[in-house]
Amino acid sequence: MNRLRDLREDKDLLQKDVAKVLNMSQTGYSQYETETNDIPTEILKKLADYYNTSIDYLLCLTDERKPYPRSILNDKE
To answer: For the chain, which domains are there?
Structure first.
């Protein structure tokens, strides 16, 4: 199961489109989708925000696509 690819395709996006949002190359992003490279925490946060889901969903730790409620700590940043 490749959640990143599925989420991207659900939005009719190409890898280069998501790579642009992340300010990186298409090749670099492709390595996340193919699990060739681990995804850094900051990129996971950006992807979860972009797709309006949780990092746990991206990492297949849950099947619940809905994001978690925001923490009051996040509001202070």
So the answer is: 3-75 (1.10.260.40)
